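Section 3.1 - Work completed
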Amino acid sequence: MSLLHLSFYSAFTLSALGLALHRTHLVSALLCLESMMLALYLALSAWPVTTQTPSSSLMPMLMLAFSACEAGTGLAMLVASTRTHGSDHLHNLNLLQC
């Protein structure tokens, strides 16, 4: 395994662990999701270089577009939950009370 692959795997794993273990604020959860998307984008961008195949730039661009949509939706949810509940703590958000 090359150093490049190890860094992508470790970045994705650390952000997934951060999402699983530090679930107190919605901002930290969104930041962990964004770092996971960044690791996936970098891995998809570097994949044609490591396999020496012709460059296919469609997949990284689609991943980047979905990541931007996910970030916009997450920020809209953050603003809406802060306005209705008063804070961004995840323990305040309960689906049974909606």
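Second construct:
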Amino acid sequence: MTLSYLDKLQEDIGKTLEKVSSREKYINNQLEHLIQEYRSAQAKLSEAKERYQQASGGVTERTRVLAEISEELEKVKQEMEEKGSSMSDGAPVVKIKQSLNKLKQEILQMDVRIGVVEHTLLQTKLKEKSNMTRDMHATNFPEPAAGPFS
């Protein structure tokens, strides 16, 4: 009596395990393309992050160089003012002032370029994030028409 009950229980458990295994394979097959899309999206995100890091590193480096040039410019300005006050001829002073004005304009242009690059990087990052979010929400899981648990 107990032996036949255990045999029946073993048979039921075996059938249930088969059903679970079959269903697991079915679900894995159904979701395989979504997993591939997710991996692809993750790879694209990593690539975009890397490009962003490289670009922001470039902006940081250019900002540092700009600061060094500005500091150097201030030193030259002071030296020129000291020398200019002791000179009697005004032509070199005029040229120096023109050069300083030109440098100031170039600094302003560099500031604008840095701002544009920062804005572009931010827009790209936000677009990538938006695309990832949209892609993740756009995936639908198909309902099976008939299956072992129907």
